[in-house]
TrEMBL record:
Its cofactor is pyridoxal 5'-phosphate. The modification N6-(pyridoxal phosphate)lysine is found at residue 190. GO terms for biological process: polysaccharide biosynthetic process. CDD domains: AHBA_syn. Keywords: Aminotransferase, Pyridoxal phosphate, Transferase. The active site is at residue 190. This is Pyridoxal phosphate-dependent aminotransferase. The keyword Transcription regulation does not apply.
Length: 385
């Protein structure tokens, strides 16, 4: 049996201990310190954003962005339905109501035509959303110009959930720096990691400073503990930030490796007509955090067959408007009265192992196993029919 091939695990650079040791040797073992400052500087330098706030998760960064926009009870926030639950959960933490927007088939991200209908209806009811959360899933940028033209018309800010897309660009601009604010995740499965952490970026320095205050229990400038508003404990640890500094050093290399992995799979799966690769959309540069594809056979059967050969694959995200915890929330499909794009993707899609430390021999094993699995499922289906 071939060794286990995981979907996406951390890939250390070898420099992590240096910065973690520095933190311990200098007693900076706190949710602040020189490593945290350096992480914020690196995030600004890499993305070009004017301001950055390091947090203890990407989810915390989304939550802070909504809190800093004063979103609360009675407000609505539009959110891409095809995503991980962490994009939408902070809307509910703030007591606001999510309205879910479908994807379009090119990028798999927010559908401009669904957003247009949702904004039109909200304006007619005089209940515009306080924000729109657009996600750049799997490292593929959304169609930002089309989405922004709509949100600008109604004066609604965009929060970019770039948790999965650090280093991916839209017409040369880094994802996460196009809307009002953007967030990144440094969770263990992401392109670079701090073991657990996140980053909020924006060109609005005052906005980031407001979020910074909220992230440290909203302490006021006073000689005693004074709190005029409710805050959170969301800062990144200086020890974790040490891991992140080392990881930032290898980010350009990691992006190239993720792109190599996608190219390898594409090249070697091209003759399999039951497989459609999800390639980067014109004008965008994908970090290919995960290689994704759609299949003409049931992806659940393929996932199980791959697992029997010790290879971890994963179904695409189950859309938020189909999740029991969001039952009753409004949803706008790409096309009225048709099965949504996000549901079609969930029913047909799969993520392939994309860890940057995989060898070419691992990738060849994934390709061979996938081809065999798909063929076996197709033949079984033909026999059953
Ligand atoms: C699309 C998306 N949004 C948000 C998050 C949340 O990030 P974190 O796990 O750092 O809280 C993740 C990843 O976990 C994600 O994939």
């Amino acid at each position: 049996m071939h060794e286990h091939i995981p979907l996406s695990i951390p890939h250390v650079s070898g420099e992590e201990m240096k910065y973690m040791k520095q933190a311990i040797d200098t007693n900076w073992v706190a949710p602040l310190g020189p490593n945290v400052d350096e992480m914020e500087r690196l995030a600004m330098e890499f993305t070009g954003a004017a301001a950055a706030l390091a947090t203890n998760s990407g989810t915390a960064a989304i939550h802070l962005s909504l809190a800093a926009l004063d979103i609360g009870q009675g407000d609505t926030v539009f959110c891409q339905s095809f995503t991980f639950a962490a994009s939408a959960n902070p809307i509910v933490y703030q007591g606001a109501t999510p309205v879910f927007i479908d994807s379009e088939p090119d990028t798999w991200n927010m559908s401009p035509q669904a957003l247009q209908r949702a904004l039109h209806d909200a304006a007619a009811k005089e209940k515009l959303p306080k924000a729109v959360i657009v996600v750049h899933l799997y490292g593929q940028s959304a169609k930002m110009a089309e989405l922004q033209a709509l949100t600008d018309r109604y004066g609604v800010p965009i929060i970019e959930d770039a948790a999965e897309s650090l280093g991916a660009t839209y017409h040369g601009k880094q994802t996460g720096t196009i809307g009002k604010a953007g967030i990144f995740s440094f969770n263990g499965n992401k392109i670079i990691t701090t073991s657990g952490g996140g980053m909020l970026v924006s060109d609005d320095i005052a906005f980031i400073e407001k979020a910074r205050k909220l992230s440290t229990q909203a302490k006021e400038q006073a000689p005693y503990y004074l709190h005029e508003s409710i805050g959170f404990n969301y800062r990144m640890s200086n020890v974790s930030a040490g891991i992140g500094i080392a990881q930032f050093g290898v980010l350009p290399k990691r992006i190239l490796t993720k792109r190599f992995i996608f190219d390898y799979y594409s090249k070697h799966l091209v003759s399999n007509t039951a497989i459609q690769m999800h390639s980067e959309f014109t004008g965008t540069y994908n970090n290919y955090w995960l290689t994704t594809l759609t299949l003409d056979v049931n992806p659940h059967d393929v996932m199980q067959a791959m697992a029997r050969h010790n290879i971890e694959t994963r179904l695409l995200w189950k859309p938020m408007h189909t999740q029991p915890c969001f039952a009753g929330c409004a949803f706008y499909a790409h096309e009225v009265n048709e099965t949504s794009i996000s549901e079609q993707l969930f029913a047909t899609g799969l993520c392939l192992p994309s860890t940057t430390s995989l060898t070419e021999s691992d990738l060849a094993h994934v390709v061979a196993t996938l081809n065999t699995a798909v063929q076996a499922i197709q033949e079984k289906r033909e026999i059953e029919v």
